[in-house]
Amino acid sequence: MTGWLPKSGVNLFTNTSSGIAKKFSTAKSAIEIAFQNKGGVIAGIGAFNFSNLKNSGKVLPGTPVGSLTINSSDNPLSTSSELQIEIQNTGTGTINDRLRVDQNLILNGRLLVTEIGSIPNGSYLIISALDRNTISGNFSTTQLPPGYRLRIQNRNSVWLDKTTASTPLQQSNMGTAKVEKRIADENQFTGAVSFYPNPANHTVNVRINNGFAKGNLRISLVDRLGRLLNERIHNYAGGKDGVTLNTSTITNGLYFVVVRDRTGKEVVVELIIQH
After folding, report:
1. Strands (E), 16-97
2. What is this structure's pTM?
3. For residues 96 and 125, what is the distance between their CA atoms, to the nearest angstrom?
4. Which residues contact 150 (CB under 8 A, 6 or more apart)?
5. How far is Cα of residue 238 from the mean position of the Cα atoms in its chain?
6. Which long-range contacts (CB under 8 A, 24 or more apart) does 9-15 make?
7. Which of 14, 144, 173, 198 is least buried, going by the fewest C-beta atoms within 10 A?
8. In this structure, what DSSP letter does residue 118 have?
9. 140: how many CB neighbours lie within 10 A of its CB?
10. Do residues 143 and 113 lie in contact, with contact meaning Cβ atoms separated by under 8 Å?
11. pLDDT in tens, 91-128
């Protein structure tokens, strides 16, 4: 972490507009004094555990791109805070910043999203609440690149959905699919999607059971950082249907299958891949 924070003899540390509290390792850093981020920057990777945080400055996960966990007795976002997220095309894939919290989070302040390179259409996970914690509220202002929509999923994650005019959903003349900015009912679409085998090996069969609008379905496989790994556009005729996704080149781990129809209805289901 850049700079120096006293551990004793001082009850309050103020990070002003010229200050940067930045972590360069994934280890946890415990800040045991009251920390006021007044126009300064909290950045880096790993985890900051604040005993008391008042944030009216900027939060920049990554070094420059990566995941940062912030835990505090107070909400890490305020009406005066700004969360900056970068999505980058590395040439071999797409990576993005991610803010993680091990507490209930209320969205607030400003969200600024920046693209670096040409970013493919897909869903990118930018905020997640660990364990049984929840996410609520809304950013007061957002600055997103063209083609992006913000979405809260299952009360515990925030995603950026990129859909441009060149996607098959738009080419099909069905109109632009409007992704709702809402807190979804976790049980609303129970049973709409299933798949086998789980864990998957070389392929996974995605079963569409009911509840989606007829027409093109976008079926995506993403990792825990929201990076798109595989995607199919399927012409759904209603009732029970399904497609097969190739998982033979994907490393072992936890992933998500995302199914979205032309009206913006979406279901996200966890998938384990194990070869």
Report:
1. 20-23, 28-37, 41-44, 46-55, 58-61, 67-71, 82-89, 94-96
2. 0.60
3. 8
4. 111, 139, 142, 144, 158, 159, 160, 161, 181
5. 30
6. 12/36, 14/38, 15/40, 15/41, 15/42, 15/57
7. 173
8. P
9. 15
10. yes
11. 888 889 999 998 999 999 999 999 999 888 888 999 99
Taking a C-beta distance cutoff of 8 angstroms, is the pair 101, 130 a contact?
Answer: yes
How far is CA 41 from each of CA 20, 57, 100, rounded to the nearest angstrom? 5, 6, 17
CB 237 within 8 A of CB 195: no
Q: What is the token pair recorded at 41?
A: 């920057």
Q: How far is CA 227 from CA 52, 93, 117, 187, in A?
A: 33, 8, 15, 25
For domain 193-273, give the CATH number. 2.60.40.2550
Would you say 144 and 150 are in contact if contact means Cβ atoms under 8 Å apart? yes
Q: Which two tokens stand for residue 176?
A: 């632009």
Tokens 């999607």 identify what position? Answer: 193
Name the residue ranges covered by the structural domains of the chain. 12-162, 193-273
Q: What is the pLDDT of residue 188?
A: 42
- Long-range contacts of the stretch 263-266 (C-beta < 8 A, 24+): 263/177, 263/178, 263/213, 264/177, 264/178, 264/179, 264/180, 265/189, 265/211, 265/212, 265/213, 266/151, 266/153, 266/179, 266/184
Q: Which two tokens stand for residue 155?
A: 């009360």
d(CA 134, CA 40): 27
* Amino acid symbol at 164: T
* Two tokens, residue 91: 């040439």
**Burial environment of residue 41 by CB neighbours within 10 A (0 to 12, 13 to 18, 19 or more):** buried
**DSSP conformational letter for 156:** T
Tokens of 251: 């490393």
Contact 93, 227 (CB under 8 A): yes
For the chain, list residues with pLDDT below 50: 1-4, 8, 165-190
